[in-house]
Design goal:
Elements lengths: L3 H14 L5 H20 L10 H13 L4 H20 L26 H8 L7 H16 L3 H6 L5 E2 L4 E2 L11 E2 L2 H19 L18 H14 L8 H14 L4 H8 L4 H4 L1 H17 L4
Antiparallel strand pairs: 1-2, 2-3
Length: 298
Amino acid sequence: MLSIDGSIDRYLTHLRVERQLASNTLEAYGHDLRTFAQHLTSKGRKDIDAVEEKDLLSFLIALHDGKLTSRSVTRYLVVIRGLFTFLLKEKIIGKDPVSKVEFPAKWKKLPHFLTLEQVDDLLAQPRRDDTLGIRDHAIMQLFYASGLRISEMSQLTTDRINLQQGYVMPMGKGSKERVVPMGKQAIDALSEYIDESRPKLSGKRICDRLFLSRLGSGISRQRLWEIIKKYARQAGIKINVTPHMLRHSFATHLIERGADLRIVQTMLGHADVSTTQIYTHVSRRHVQELYRKFHPRS
């Protein structure tokens, strides 16, 4: 067995003697590899052949948490991959723990979403005893019930909602229409808004937008954003809640409960299912976290 430090020394000697790398390049390689070695030591690793993929991933996460750019993280990964390629070729190790690790350029940023408890707290905030509170309640319920984009919400017209059948027909990107079902809570909230609040907001003005401002015109994207922020603060939710986060929460919670990926794709209005697949990664992460938390042998 070869120690981690010994394997790094052997690789640097190879780079200096056989590859004849410049001294400043060798110094940079040495710095990156020593930093990696320190991380492995902190994880209890002593021998190079004991290093696993999870050790590298935890190192990359530590670099990311240290606010390094993707370019800097990529540099570390290139250097470490070179080390293990050399060790495998020299038969010092039997398997390469780095081979399946993607470069940061290929990483997809997982969407942030709310827990069910946070959603419940958020949706409970609008007061139901005044005109704007009833409107805001309907807005919040529809956001979470349908996963609509903020632009689709602000542009939604009264003829694109069917409360009897329980669906909404937003006009998405590229002027593509889709049908999205709604649950009972959203239907009830919209019925209350349309019957009680919307006539008071519209007054004598004629506007086909579903959601109206206090002046009777269509509500703006900016105002929708402010409404979400307002109630997130009231609910005491510490993270930065955005309208798009409700869309992410809608999709994530559906998939966590077994919804078919293609159906979710249709409801979100994604042209390519690969865009929707990111929510399966979120769902798997959620399951893994629950397993580690509750399984006695995790």
